[in-house]
Amino acid sequence: MSTKKPKGALLTGMIAAIAASSCCIPPVIAAIAGAGGATSSMSWMEPYRPYLIVLAVIAIGYAWYSHFKPKKEDDCGCSIQTPKWYQTKTFLISMTLFAALSIGFPYYSGKFFTDNAQNVVVENKKNVETIEVTISGMTCDACQNHVDHAVNELDGIVSIKTSYTNGNSIIQFDKTKTNQEQIKKAINSTGYSATIIESK
Asked: What domains, with CATH codes, occur in the chain?
């Protein structure tokens, strides 16, 4: 039995699993590191996510198939090859779990963002302004959580609700403590592009 095929399949599965969530990993790393920058640079991979997930499942499935496939034996009844470390069941289980965690990353990435929402006391309700901001480049929960986290760093943010599916954010803020330009700058610092379309 060739040892290259299962090894290649497992490597392909790992790369595909990581690539499937590559657009969601940079925002979390940036938030943990306290950095902004081009965290949306991998958003171009989002349309390929379903195909990468299928590739990962097929490749890892093939690695499991190769592991359980009956081994050829020589005349003495001995196995022709002893399993390599990457062919052991423990390693396959570990890599399968890693792939599953990588593929599911967008769904639990919000857990990595600390809740930095402030309890803002508004002295005069006339000072509260609501704006809608369109944001391009967001592809998953990690993106919207990154935007919320960056905007909540500003003083005077009463509430923020960002949606990557709608590509927007509804923000209420105390205009005596911050302004639209600072909010736009905070969003742009995450690597996404913000445009204020409505002010109430």
From this structure: 4-108 (no CATH), 113-199 (3.30.70.100)
Look up the pTM and report it.
Answer: 0.65
**CA separation for the pair 182, 105 (Å, rounded):** 30
Q: Over the stretch 78-125, which tens digit does the pLDDT of each residue have?
A: 555 666 666 678 888 888 888 888 888 777 777 777 777 777 777 788
Six-digit token string for 190: 């995450």
What does the buried/exposed string (b/e) look like for 113-122 if buried means 16 or more CB atoms within 10 Å of the residue's CB?
beeeeeeeee
Asked if 8 and 159 touch (Cβ cutoff 8 Å), the reply is no
Beta bridge partners of 130: 172
* Residue 118: both structure tokens together: 């402030």
- Provide the CA 60 distance to its chain's centre, in angstroms: 21
157-163 vs 128-136, strand pairing mode: unpaired
